[in-house]
Amino acid sequence: MRIISGNYKGRRITAPKKLPVRPTTDMAKEALFNIINNRYYFEDISILDLFSGTGNISFEFASRGVKNIIAVDQHSGCAQFISKTSEELKFDISVIKSDVFKYLSKAHFKSDIIFADPPYNFNQEQFGKIPQLVFENSLLRENGMLIIEHSEQTDLSKMLYYSESRKYGGNVFSFFELENNLI
């Protein structure tokens, strides 16, 4: 994987092969960040990266100047890799090793963007639990958005707070917000 923009543009990061991850492709990541870039100033926002895996999305935000990032993953190898890489790159990413659903149930940190990249084999109920917990617990700041990455076989359009989806290759990003006035 590589960082596609910002201070560390072009920097390759090699994650251990044993991690149970599926990093977001460069093409999909570039498209996603073009959308985000048109709506936010990176230096002014806070990010919650759920099911963070290799930290690919957190590293991209950090490279672009985001200073307030929390990465949550329950796999100890993933959490260790993100911590180690963040330290090497001098990124200020807080890493929390936790089950995402337990974390969301207890979290008080409000974010501008919450990005979730759960396993593609989640069922509708598991996917639905993410926006439910985010919005029930008021974890987004005003004008904030939740972005869930999933496969094209999954349809999240009937869920509460759904705004729209964008498809890039086999990746789909579904956007959720309090007001459906996204892009």
TrEMBL record:
Keyword Methyltransferase: yes
Highest taxon in the source lineage: Bacteria
CDD domains linked to this entry: AdoMet_MTases
Gene3D superfamilies for the chain: Vaccinia Virus protein VP39
Entry annotated with the keyword Transmembrane: no
PANTHER family documented for this protein: METHYLTRANSFERASE
Protein name: RsmD family RNA methyltransferase
Source organism (scientific name): Croceitalea vernalis
